[in-house]
Every structure is written in C-alpha cells, then in structure tokens.
Amino acid sequence: MKKVVSLISLCHLVLIKLLLLSKTVIAEPRAKTILVTCGHVREHNSTIFVPNFVATMEKISDEMRKTGFGTAVVGTGPDTNYGLAQCYGDLSLLDCVLCYAEARTVLPQCYPYNSGRIFLDGCFMRAENYSFFNEYTGPGDKAVCGNTTKKNSSFQAAAKQAVLRVVQDAPNNKGYARGNVAVAGTTNQSVYVLADCWRTLDQRSCKACLENAYISLQGCLPWSEGRVLNTGCFMRYSDTDFLNKVQGSGSSRGNVVVIVVAVVSSVIVSVVGVTIGVYIWKQRYIQKKRRGSNDAEKLAKSLQNKSLNFKYSTLDKATGSFHENNKLGQGGFGTVYKGVLADGREIAIKRLYFNNRHRAADFYNEVNIISSVEHKNLVRLLGCSCSGPESLLVYEFLPNKSLDRFIFDKNKGKELNWEKRFEIIIGTAEGLVYLHENSKTKIIHRDIKASNILLDAKFRAKIADFGLARSFQEDKSHISTAIAGTLGYMAPEYLAHGQLTEKADVYSFGVLLLEMVTGRQNNRSIVSEYSDSLVTVIRHGSIFRQGLLNNYLIQI
Predict the structure, then answer these.
(1) How would CATH label the architecture of 297-396?
(2) What residues are annotated to the active site?
(3) Second CATH level (architecture) for the domain 404-552
(4) Which one-letter DSSP state was computed for residue 438?
(5) Is 289 annotated among the ligand-binding residues?
(6) I need a surface site. Which of 121, 199, 335, 417 has the fewest CB within 10 A?
(7) Which residues form the Gnk2-homologous domain (predicted)?
C-alpha cells in the first residue's frame, strides 16, 4: 500500500511540475519576421564597424537572457554602434531567447549599411551609429495590415475599444499592456491586442508613441488583423488569440491542481499514462524547436559525409551553452568558442552571425566543398549544424590561436624567431597554392590576414576562416562579384572593379609578409606614427634609395 501511495504522490508531483513547466516552455516565441528596414548610409570602416556590431549583439544577448531587454554601446566616432533589443511582454525568457536569436541572424543582412531595424511578432531589434534610445516616432513608422478577411462593424467597434484600452494602460504599466474585448452579438469572438513601448522611453514618450499607433492602426480596419511598427513601440490587434498565457496566474494554477487531484483519485494507470504522454509530447516539442525547420533537416541529408552533421544540442553542451569563458575570439562572420566533446576531443565552434537556415542549400553545398579540402596548412572543418536556432561550423582546435596575437605584440612576438616566421610564411604560401591550384575546386579565400592564420602547438601555419571564400569552376578566370574582405588587405583592382582572381589573395599575402617582418599592422599605421598605411610607406621610393628599409624590420 505504501508503494501505491508513493507512486500516486510521485505521479502527482511530476504531473503538476510538467503542467506548470509547460506554461513557460510550451509557448510561442513568435519569431516570424514582419519587417526589416536598412539605413542608406554605408559603414565608415568595415574593420572597425563589424567587430563593434558583433560586440553590441553579444552584450545585448547577455541582457536578453536575464530580462528580455537589452541595450549596448560599443566603439567611438563614426563607427560607434548603438543597439537595442526587446521582447514583448507576454514572452517567457526562453521564448525571448529564441526570438532574439532569429532577429540577430537577420539584421546583419543590412551590412554594409550602418543601421537597421527588425520587427518580429515577438521581439524587436535596432542598430544605429548614433544614440536613438529616446526616439519614439520617425519617418520609418509604419502600419502593416492583414488583407484576407474583412470584419463587420461590431468587430471594428470592439477593436477600437481594445486598442484604446491598452493605449491608456501601457504607459502606467512599464510600457506594456495586453487584453481582449468580446465582439458584441457573438458568443465566442473577441479582439486580442498587445502594446509595448521600448523600455528606454519615459511615460510621456510611451504615451505619445502609442497614441500615434492608435491612429495608424485604425487605418487597418475593417481587416481582421493589424500591426503598427513605430520607432518607439509596437502594437497589434487580431481576431485570433496570439497572446501567450499569463504565467503564474492563481486561478489557472488552481484549475491545474483540481484536474490533477481528479485524475489521481480515479486510476493510477490514467495518471501514469497522462504523465508519460505529457513528458513524451514535451520532449518531442523541445526537440523539434531545437532542430529548427524541417527543410533544414532534409537538406542536412545532402551532406556527402554524414559524420559532418553535428546535433545542435551536442555543440551547445560542448561549449557550456556558449559560455563567455569558452569564447576564443570573433571575426567578421562569427564568434568562436572552444568546446569539448563527450569523448574528450577539443574543438573550435564558430557561431555564425547570419542564420544560414535561410540559405541552407547553399550552406551545405559550401560545407561539402570546404570539407573536401585537406592540406597540412589549412584548418580542417570537422562539421556543421544548421538545423538549430543558430548556424554553427565546427573546426579543429588550435591551441596557439591566431598569428596576430604574436606579431603585433612585442612580448609575445619574441616567441617567433626568424626561423619560425619563415616557416609560417612558407606554410601560408603552400596553403594558398593548394587552394588555387591543387584542390578539386578552385577556391579564392579573399580575406588573407594575420587573424585568419592560426598556429598549432608547434607554430605551424594553418589558413582559417573560409566564410568569405568562393569556389569557382576551372574555366572561369575573372569573376565579377560583390566586394568582400578587409580593407587594407584587398588588391586595388579587386577593390576598384570587383574583378576577382587568385591575385587578390597574392596581394593580401604580400601585405601579411610586410606585417610579419615589421611587426606593424597595415591598417593601424594611420593612427600611430605614420600618416599613411604600412604598404604606402614601405613602397615609397625614397626608402629604397636611401637604404632605410632595415629601419622598419622588427628586432628579435
């Protein structure tokens, strides 16, 4: 009898916990993109802008996990990046993280423009090169109306009443309000509404923004749904209940307890069945959410080597959920983390800024090409994951990290004598020759620089970061393509005309060679003792005529 009682108690507790937990987990992040708008001014300096933008997103990400809201300011001057992100008030923190993950992968599509904003049905994100945190209205304000179903006058009256109510309530409730109003003359029809101001606004600005939204939203009637996407707030009404359930409400918890007691008191078998059913359903739901779109799952089968396809959950666990302590660095296309697999293998995981689920076919095609390239002077790609909330690339882990950490640091630079530097130069050259001439598919890297040359435990060079690489058929010698790379390392003809050949990599290699023997960074010389870049200074005729070249060589 005691065993039966214990089983009942256990099932009782488990079922209560599962049902209560499902209120926060089994919700809807509403990650559908409603509108993306990009600025019209190009970034001032990509080598500064991109790292600033990435750092902004990382800082905001940390805040979003805690409060569902975050701001950040990174940098100085024209390339300063100001960022803001916020989830709407009915989202749980878990769903908020999922919505923000989608936003942060879409907004970078505005590059090379220095600003942009994205509205999703569950969250908002904006980035600029100036402080916009107190703005509540602007020329980009817009109403987005449904166009499928028209409603009668009773619905329109209920919609106006519901919207007006949240306009009045939100400014006094930290900028957030939600609600619903029944449609007169109906038994089961209501209008559902949500309003949310960005938390940087004061009460007066929030009210002004929502009042403006109220006027705009009336233009959507008699349609069954409408949204207003303002500079400082978001508002939506609909004839469908899109709102997530209020968490922790006393009445709902009471109902759960009553249901549980009724089930437990009837039959133990029913309790066990319901418990198992809820558990399995919840697990399948979580797994489906983490796997991402079905399309990406199908496309993953296109990988030529099935072992390349890592589960997102495996990589998330390997990095401690991408803990800051495991962060190795960041570049133009992603943040890199150190991970340890269950078998003890150390790996490097690049967390891409762009979510390649939107171009999953291209992503897997690139993985197939790059994974087939094997050379002692190329970083080996171990696999990828494109079916979770973010796209990930998995590489071999190299303990000495990147070359720039040594050649631009006077103290660490002493670890690289001339013999080691020579070997690094030769190794890099051999890796490039393989990419250009000996691989099955000709690959032009386009971003050869010190930070993309990694060093193993014996300081052997390995070329990394094929994020900017492009593959070409052998019969194409000149390719017109979008300009990509790092300023100061790009060949003049490529920068001016977009004409891309292997010569672009050779030019970048030449710049790297100068940096190796001088210990000076090409792009940094402008802000230090020289008025021109390192390349401009070195190739100046007077240096050779006066025999001053040795003055620029590093002393080891």
Answers:
(1) 2-Layer Sandwich (3.30)
(2) 447
(3) Orthogonal Bundle (1.10)
(4) I
(5) no
(6) 417
(7) 31-132, 137-242
